[in-house]
């Protein structure tokens, strides 16, 4: 078996180096096949860890950094599901991860994250797997209360019927195939094997658990979770005490004639309210109103953020003088709620601080205006205060759905800035899987030659993160093929759910975000009575003159353009020009590896008459365009045909401001003479709002 695993690892590395050009559309299948092999026989995880550590040390000696992060993720995924790993192997892995701290980003960040997890697993075997199952399956318990939920979004307008049906059926079948009780048994068996090693007879333990009732399994599960968490919370916990308690529990389960009675004696006493629940809705956010007492509800009704509602008040608190209902009113009209002038509450100091802390943690404190794109987690893993709930948002589609995602994300942040709720409760992680119908092929250099214009963002992520390229961007063409094969065969994919396995791997291991600037566009129209429109885009904005589409030469409109020229020195120079053009395109995503600047690249259409000294391209982050003639133009955002604006006279494009920064700026304006000056904490906050999309490595230079 060791030789088979070694061949699989070498095949993955060859694929990573680009030596399998004939199988570009099957990228990711080798990794999936390897994980399926160790999933069928978890005992092989230890062998795989030994193989991968040798390959990592070989890559370190040869300075082959391309292999380091993919091998690290393969290693960590094996450790996560391994039933038993010798201590000397743990030490070897930990020492390698520590050596990565001397390397630049992203190797030091990924190495530090994995070193912390390996150390936790070494001191408390089984803790990583247990926490993963508890959070992902939303199993309520008192010891570890962190819960996760994965939300998969796909735009039906961008996917075919057969693809939508295949995706929904596979995801639904994966979410309902097992009960919470089976996951509890998995946690018990895995923890016993990880801690006790060969002294744990896993088949016998599984049979004994299956023969017991639900109450007995819950008692055993609760005791295992409590033992693991107590040891994990104590820095350098007593390993012998940990294994001794699990050994005692294991003996009680497999040898007791009356397991329920014996477990009741063994486990610590707990009130009946602590019995575990398998309610599938356990991830739901707690309702801040339902948790209040009756007296608090009355207070909330009066001091609401909306206004007081007269019908909510008890009779004793109703005003003495009230308007008599007219005789002509019906009972239904009299029963309506009457709005009274209430007290509009301002965000509290704690709410403001929560939003401020969230802004500093998520966007970092890098100074504005820098053209280098930011990536990777800021700060030490575990250094920030963890939130109990994590929502992992997975979007499937092309650049059009990413644009709609950016718009929804911006609206959410603006609402949360006014009254923070999700900011305090929820940790939001965003993932992107490209899907398109268009065919494209690869050249010898593995660059797409056609059909990838709608997946510019995914192409960029594939360039900066080779492991994303192999495992996620390859799905761009594979998902439609799999959907077509499934619709033709009519077979269920429950036995080998490829897509759900890939999504699970992505959300578990893809923890390094790449930040994309969200741009705001303000549009004025030729009709003066029509209100201005504000929208956002994240990949591309295109301007066309309807009369001149498909023509060149003298056709076009005279436009005046004013912009701030972007430069690496961070010196913004105001410039302006006038030209006749039939259209232009603003791209926010770099199209080549040699130029990775976080700004807009403005390209004019062929035949545009540009003044001398302008090369036909502009790099900027702030630009204003208006037509000098009575020729309106059309604006299309993120290549989405549903986001086209006609009869536009002028536009203004600039990065979206971070709502947390705007709120803090408004508060500081009361104490500052100049509105342009950043004082207090605003000096350390990011001014612009980025869209973070998680990858495996961030950006590899």
Explain this structure:
By secondary structure, the protein is of the alpha+beta class. Among the domains are: 2-123; 520-655, Tumour Suppressor Smad4 (Sandwich). 41% of the residues lie in helices and 16% in strands. The chain has helices spanning 2-16, 29-40, 45-61, 68-81, 87-99, 107-123, 127-136, 161-175, 180-196, 202-210, 214-233, 239-255, 259-266, 294-302, 331-334, 349-363, 399-418, 422-425, 456-464, 466-473, 475-489, 498-509, 659-668; strands at 147-154, 389-397, 426-434, 512-517, 519-525, 533-537, 540-544, 557-565, 573-581, 583-587, 600-604, 617-627, 633-637, 644-655, 690-695. It has a six-stranded antiparallel β-barrel with strand order 7-10-11-12-14-13. A three-stranded parallel beta sheet has the order 1-2-3, with helices on both faces. Helix 3 (45-61) packs antiparallel against helix 4 and helix 5 packs antiparallel against helix 6. It is elongated and about 90 Å long.
Short description:
The chain is of the alpha+beta class. Helices cover 41% and strands 16% of the residues.
CATH classification, class level of the domain at 520-655? Mainly Beta
The largest pleated sheet is described as: 6 strands, antiparallel, barrel
Tell me the structural class: alpha+beta
Distance between the termini: 36 Å
User: Tell me, what's the shape?
Assistant: elongated
CATH topology of the domain at 520-655: Tumour Suppressor Smad4
Mean pLDDT: 78
DSSP helix count?
23
Helix content: 40-55%
Number of strands: 15
CATH architecture of the domain at 520-655: Sandwich
Query: What percentage of amino acids are in beta strands?
Result: 15-25%
Poorly predicted tracts of residues: 268-312, 317-329, 331-336, 363-369, 378-384, 440-452
Please give the order of strands in the largest beta sheet: 7-10-11-12-14-13
- Spatial extent as radius of gyration: 29 Å
GO molecular function, one term: 1-phosphatidylinositol-3-kinase regulator activity
Region (Disordered): 308-345, 362-383
Protein name: Phosphoinositide 3-kinase regulatory subunit 6
Pfam families: PI3K_1B_p101
């Amino acid at each position: 078996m060791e030789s088979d695993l070694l061949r699989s690892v070498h095949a993955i590395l060859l694929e990573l180096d680009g030596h399998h050009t004939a199988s570009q559309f099957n990228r990711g299948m080798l990794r999936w096949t390897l994980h399926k092999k160790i999933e069928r026989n978890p005992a092989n995880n230890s062998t795989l860890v030994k193989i991968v550590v040798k390959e990592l040390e070989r890559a370190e000696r040869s300075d082959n950094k391309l292999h380091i992060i993919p091998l690290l993720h393969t290693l960590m995924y094996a450790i996560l599901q391994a039933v038993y790993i010798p201590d000397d192997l743990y030490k070897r892995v930990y020492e390698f991860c520590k050596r990565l701290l001397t390397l630049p980003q992203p190797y030091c960040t990924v190495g530090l994250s994995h070193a912390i997890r390996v150390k936790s697993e070494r001191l408390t075997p089984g803790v990583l797997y247990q926490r993963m199952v508890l959070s992902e399956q939303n199993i309520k318990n008192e010891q570890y209360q962190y819960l996760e939920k994965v939300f998969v979004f796909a735009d039906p307008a961008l996917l075919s019927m057969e693809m939508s049906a295949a995706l929904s059926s596979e995801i639904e079948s994966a979410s309902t195939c097992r009960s919470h009780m089976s996951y509890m048994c998995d946690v018990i068996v895995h923890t016993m094997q990880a801690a006790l090693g060969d002294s744990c007879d896993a088949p016998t333990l599984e049979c004994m658990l299956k023969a017991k009732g639900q109450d007995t399994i819950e008692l055993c599960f609760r005791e295992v979770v409590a033992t693991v968490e107590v040891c994990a919370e104590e820095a350098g916990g007593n390993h012998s005490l940990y294994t001794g308690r699990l050994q005692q529990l294991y003996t009680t389960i497999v040898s007791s004639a009356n397991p329920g009675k014996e477990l009741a004696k063994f486990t610590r006493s707990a009130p009946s309210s602590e019995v575990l629940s398998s309610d599938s809705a356990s991830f739901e956010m707690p309702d801040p109103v339902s948790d209040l007492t009756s007296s608090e509800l009355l207070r909330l009704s009066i001091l609401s953020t909306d206004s007081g509602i007269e019908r909510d008040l008890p009779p004793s608190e109703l005003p003495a003088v009230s308007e008599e209902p007219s005789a002509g009113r019906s009972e239904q009209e009299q029963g309506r709620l009457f709005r009274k002038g209430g007290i509009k509450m301002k965000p509290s100091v704690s709410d403001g601080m929560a939003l401020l802390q969230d802004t500093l943690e998520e966007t970092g404190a890098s100074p504005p205006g820098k053209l280098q794109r930011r990536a990777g987690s800021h700060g030490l893993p575990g250094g920030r205060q963890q939130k109990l709930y994590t929502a992992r948002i997975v979007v499937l589609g092309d650049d059009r759905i990413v644009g709609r995602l950016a718009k929804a994300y911006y609206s959410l942040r603006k609402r949360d800035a006014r009254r923070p709720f999700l900011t305090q409760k929820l940790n939001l992680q965003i993932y992107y899987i490209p899907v398109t119908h268009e065919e494209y092929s690869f050249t010898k250099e593995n660059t797409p030659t056609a059909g990838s214009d709608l997946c510019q963002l995914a192409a960029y992520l594939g360039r900066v993160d080779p492991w994303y390229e192999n495992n996620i961007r390859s799905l761009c063409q594979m998902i439609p093929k799999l959907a077509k094969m499934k619709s033709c065969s009519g077979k269920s994919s429950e036995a080998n759910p490829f897509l759900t396995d890939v999504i699970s791997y992505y959300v578990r291991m893809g923890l390094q975000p790449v930040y994309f600037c969200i741009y705001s566009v303000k549009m004025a129209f030729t009709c003066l009575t029509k209100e201005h429109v504000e929208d956002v885009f994240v990949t591309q904005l295109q301007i066309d003159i309807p009369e001149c589409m498909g023509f060149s030469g003298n056709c076009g409109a005279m436009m005046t353009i004013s912009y701030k020229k972007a430069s690496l020195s961070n010196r913004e120079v105001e410039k302006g020009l006038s030209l006749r053009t039939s259209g232009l395109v603003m791209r926010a995503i770099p199209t080549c590896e040699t130029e990775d600047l976080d700004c807009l690249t403005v390209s004019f259409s062929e035949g545009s008459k540009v003044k001398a000294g302008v090369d036909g391209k502009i790099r900027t982050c702030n630009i204003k365009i208006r037509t000098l003639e009575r020729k309106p133009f059309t604006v299309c955002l993120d290549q989405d045909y549903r986001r086209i604006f006609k009869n536009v006279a002028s536009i203004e494009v600039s990065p979206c401001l971070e709502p947390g920064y705007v709120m803090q700026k408004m508060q500081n304006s009361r104490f500052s003479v100049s509105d342009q000056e950043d004082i207090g904490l605003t000096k350390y906050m990011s001014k612009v709002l980025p869209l973070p999309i998680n990858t495996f490595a961030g950006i590899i230079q």
